[in-house]
Write a structure and sequence with these properties.
The protein has 329 residues and is of the alpha/beta class. It contains twelve helices and seven strands. The chain folds into two domains: 109 residues, no CATH class; 196 residues, P-loop containing nucleotide triphosphate hydrolases (Rossmann fold, 3-Layer(aba) Sandwich). The strands form two sheets. Strands 4-5-6-3-7 form a five-stranded parallel beta sheet, sandwiched between helices. The structure holds adenosine-5'-diphosphate (ADP), magnesium ion and zinc ion. The site of zinc ion (ZN) has 5 residues, from loops.
Length: 329
């Protein structure tokens, strides 16, 4: 698993803080309890000394009998300490260090490899790092305006609608989606021409869902493919987020789907992400300028059928709002 250096450092720092916190809490507990039950302090010191002597004996090649003696002594002292705790109504494991992760004691490593807690941290820190590059504060439901959309019927539709009516539907849907986001929410495909508010609305969703405490990753299809390729080629730091960052987050937004360079590798790896997330019931939002037919043409049938069959489609109509805004101000 490869991650940018800063992401790894951030994750390790969190582990270090967890360890320090656990150890500090233990020290405080010890201090308190040794003050009230003095004999416990003495016993703990004795246990530590015996352990030290045992280690020394082993290191100096002491006989098995000699080492065994220390072991017995230590067990005897521990029993005494446990009885003393019991006698004072204190749980036996009170003096155990309470790590955040009992499996790895907040080191992040097991003899078999990375502990799940470190994997999770790496994914969370990747999401934070990726989202830091997005100007989330600029996009909200509140500053999404309907006046930018025409009120003439869109030509050629089976069910007639104006761009503004459609935009209102999209806005209402996305607001609901964000406020009710859950593991049961549908996947979304936001489709339509450039500058019609797809990125705007999806980032407004990202912001709300992040506020609810879910892990969310927003990434352009170009960056996504670069990242996935980055693991095959020697790539710069920017493109070194592990594929897990994109598989494991609660919500993944892939923007500008269809603008990435198409190769058999990119199609297969994007399909892998879309499909794995579908199977794990993790939500994905995809924005694209491609029409349904272009998706079929550009991607393999299996990608197109996933997107068109298992995603809820929101269509965007109208004129490029970037240009309208430009003309107005
Ligand atoms: N309904 C809207 N109200 C206000 N600003 C909008 C609206 N739709 C788009 N914009 C703005 O216009 C620009 C282009 O929109 P964007 O969401 O990037 O379009 P798309 O992703 O559909 O190409 C952005 O700056 C965006 O904030
Ligand atoms: Mg966009
Ligand atoms: Zn762990």
């Amino acid at each position: 698993m490869v991650y940018p250096q800063q992401v790894v450092l951030n994750a390790l720092k969190i582990l270090e803080d967890r360890r320090n916190k656990a150890e500090q809490e233990l020290q405080e507990k010890k201090k308190r309890i040794f003050e009230s039950v003095e004999e416990l302090g003495e016993l703990s010191k004795e246990i530590a000394q015996v352990s030290l002597l045992a280690v020394k004996a082993v290191a100096n090649g002491g006989t098995a009998e000699h080492v065994e003696q220390f072991k017995l002594k230590s067990l005897e002292l521990q029993k005494k300490r446990d009885d003393l705790l019991k006698g004072n109504g204190i749980p036996k494991d009170y003096l155990k260090c309470r790590y955040y992760c009992e499996k790895c004691h907040d080191t992040g490593y097991l003899t078999t490899g990375l502990c799940d807690c470190l994997k999770k941290l790496l994914i969370n820190e990747s999401a934070k790092d990726l989202n830091m590059k997005v100007p989330l504060d600029k996009f909200s439901f509140d500053n999404f305006r309907l006046e930018f959309y025409d009120t003439n019927l869109v030509p050629g539709l089976k069910e007639p609608i104006t761009p503004r009516e459609q935009a209102k539907k999209n806005l209402d849907f996305c607001k609901e989606y964000a406020s009710n986001f859950s593991k049961e929410s549908p996947n979304l495909l936001l489709g339509g021409g450039t500058g019609l508010g797809k990125t705007h609305l999806s980032l407004a969703i990202v912001k709300e869902v992040l506020k609810k405490g879910y892990s969310v990753v927003y990434i352009s299809a170009v960056q996504l493919v670069l990242n996935l390729e980055g693991h095959r080629f020697n790539s710069d730091e920017q493109n070194k987020y592990s594929i897990d960052s994109f598989l494991e987050c609660d919500l993944l937004v892939i923007d500008d789907f269809g603008s990435e360079p198409i190769s058999s590798f990119s199609v297969a790896s994007v399909y892998n992400i879309i499909n794995t997330r579908l199977m794990q019931q993790k939500q994905t939002i995809i924005n694209t300028n491609l029409s349904g037919q272009r998706i079929v043409d550009q991607y393999e049938e299996r990608v197109a059928s996933r997107l068109l069959g298992e995603y809820y489609v929101l269509k965007f109509y109208g004129r490029d709002i970037r240009q309208i805004k430009h003309l107005q101000f």
